[in-house]
Amino acid sequence: MSFDFGDELTPLRLTLAPQQVADYVHAANQAAPRFLDDEQAKKEGLPGQIAPGNMSLALFSRFLESAAPGARVLRISATFRSFVQPKVPLLVTGVVTDVTDADDEQRIECDLLLESEAGERLVTGTGSVVVPR
Question: Which residues pair with 14 in a beta bridge?
Fold first, then answer.
């Protein structure tokens, strides 16, 4: 597989289940009430259960690995703009912004976006991966 500047990566569509978020935060030892259920989150003034930021980073990683099979993720960064919530259809997209070629691999830099199906930008970021040829 080979990438060029400006390539749009294959989008990833998903919807997080409330239990999936709860399982993630327990595994990550982040079991704050806002991550566990709607009622607990609303007591904190939030619109309902939210996913932790590092779960959004994990979604970016999953996206990069699915868009570039065999890729090794080097770096991911993110800017959190709004809450990522379960039961909301999500779309993860990316575009290649830089390519460095070597004999047996490519290093690609990408702009990343996690948005709701309605088009609300929830998390923006960048990622860097090495893709074998």
Answer: 90
- CA nearest to 69, candidates 5, 4, 132: 132
| Rounded Cα gap, residues 68 and 85, in angstroms | 26
Number of H helices, E strands in the chain: 3, 5
The pLDDT assigned to 2 comes to: 87
Supply the pLDDT for residue 35. Answer: 95
List for the chain the helix, strand, coil content (%; round to 5). 25, 35, 40
pLDDT at 1: 79
Residue spans of the chain under pLDDT 50: none
In angstroms, the Cα distances linking 117 to 38, 69, 121 are: 20, 25, 10
